[in-house]
Amino acid sequence: FSINLIRCELLLKCSVNVFQSLSDGMWLRCGCAASLRVLASPLRVLGLRRCNTAAFMPESTGFGGVSGRSGLQEFSVSSSESFWAAVARHRLSWIRPFTAVQDCDLSRGRIRWFEGGKLNVSVNCLDRHVHTCPDRVALMWERDEKGSEVRYTYRELLEMTCRVGNLLRRHGVKKGDCVTIYMPTCPLAVASMLACARIGAAHNVVFAGFSAEALAERIRDAQSSTVITVNQGIRGGKILELKKTVDTAVQSCPTVQQVFVAMRTDSPVAMTARDIAMEEVRQQREDVVCEPAAMNSEDTLFLLYTSGSTGKPKGLVHTQAGYLLYAALTHRYVFNYHDGDVFGCVADIGWITGHSYGVYGPLANGGTTVLFESTPVYPDPGRYWDMVERLQINQFYGAPTAIRLLLKFGDEWVNKYDRSSLKTLGSVGEPINTEAWEWYYRVVGEERCPVVDTWWQTETGGICIAPRPSDPDAEIVPGMAMRPFFGIKPALMDTEGKVISGNDASGALCLAQPWPGMARTIHNDHQRFMETYCQPYPGYFFTGDGAYRSVEGYYQITGRLDDVINVSGHRIGTAEIEDAVNQCPAVAESAVIGYSHDIKGQAVFAFVVLKKNVDVEEADLSRQLNGIVSEKIAKYACPDFIQFVQRLPKTRSGKIMRRVLRKVVELDLDSLGDLSTLDDPAAVQEIIQGHRELLSK
Ligand code: AMP
Description:
Number of helices: 22
Strand order of the largest sheet: 12-11-8-6-7-14-15-24
Shape: globular
Strand content: 15-25%
Distance between the termini: 53 Å
Helix content: 25-40%
Bound molecules: adenosine monophosphate
Number of strands: 31
Structural class: alpha/beta
Largest sheet: 8 strands, mixed
Radius of gyration: 25 Å
């Protein structure tokens, strides 16, 4: 870390020049960073360990008297406007400077940053790097077929983006429209996202594992008239019929006028009058110059749907400047990313992690980012580490569920490959248990690489709590997200809604002041945004998570406080699954809960009450219900267990007691708690008995 600081001190001069030359209209030569890096090595011998704040963060020279990382963090919270103004001026390239840093009032759900400013996100992610380093690799596409990776330079990615931008414009896509992208993780998907940003359209990326119905619901809610997809996807060697899924979806989407279809495999697919082949982009018929739209800071950059505690997914709205700045700053400092590093985030672009750390953060920083199309076990459990060796990945960012899966295959799959390029390991999406954390640190990282357990959400836009950045050599506690990022002020709330002030305490995790990366609203439903995030603790942003603050003041996430569960790092509302299950004609009602699963983190358990006189084999019905869930939502949402019961435990007012069901499934019968409020306590005994029988089968 200290070596990197020294390197950073030297790079400072370089980056200050970059930004000065940007404003002077001059461009820095590419060789600058590389030559300074060579210069850094003699200093390494001196063993300097000084924490120079200005070297660490160039903007901090203007922060008067701030020293050390904790000093910076305090300043970023207490002088939030000065901090974010300096960072925004320094790290983004503006068409017109902003006139107000922020205009936020969390109690009213009003969140605005950098108003008056105009910029273009694709110019920030591409053009400015093309001017300085056109041949630097922007994307390394790790295709499903191992060993067939493809690299795209910044120049090539800009050209591809401009072609897609021109294609969309030529087909009538306008500023303010919303384009749905249903594609695997691939360069054309990234170019499509950036092309939307270039012409001022919002994008709505839908994870390509979602079913036709789930896709249709998101297209309708986003009111998209344009969809971009591929003929087929390929993942883990299996073909995914994405175009067919889109065909089914758009049948119930009257707004859709055109579907662009790219070819990921060689198999032709049936095309309709609505479909437009994207081959022309490849055949380079479109111009490689595409005029970027001048966007207001608060114009929508994208919608991203995520699950909440009702059956209807919510389209969180992220805007241009604040989101990009926050993604870039967290990418740079949480992972200690430096010029020339290869950043390996293995998340799919369909999730917020893929957006912020597969695409926007690394590209805003002029980085090299890996797009991972495959699975951790294809063709074998050495896939990640083989990729680390081949692509010389410096920062690896993945999900605990994959780590837990891989550790079961043994150390030899890791040790087979050279991982000496690795400098930082990241974990995202769900709690990482100590065993997985230690294996990640000890075996994968050879005890050399800090493991950063990063807590954040679709709503927060970027990482909010993580062990780094921190003072050099500051401790990292396994399985803890630990320290708030710059500008983040966590607060824990007690059951009466009061702020808990001391340490060694648990409560509802809120964020006490706005930050630029936060979602602005829920598309078409600001009322829901207010009710979910702003009203539970007026003046605070409520995250939906619980957290523990240790004696030392470190944060540890304890899990969701609502009916949202996290299966293999994918968020899903239990109400969504219940809605799907209840659509089976044989089902009277159901209750879905999450339970601990040693690989997936959490898995789905469904209790189902059948209608009277239903005469179907339970095994057949279970298959049918799983089919319905994968058709209506996605495969990952399917229950691992379905228990058919006569009735559900309910309060006298009819509320299902999910707490009791959770205890039964966790075999924690001693803490079933007070059952006297139940309408019919005998229901619980029946369920316990049925559960025993299910397990013994
Ligand atoms: P998503 O918006 O799909 O990324 O899901 C966000 C949710 O995942 C959070 O609200 C947490 O419940 C959970 N989560 C994300 N990162 C972590 C983490 N590092 N530790 C514990 N839970 C996490």
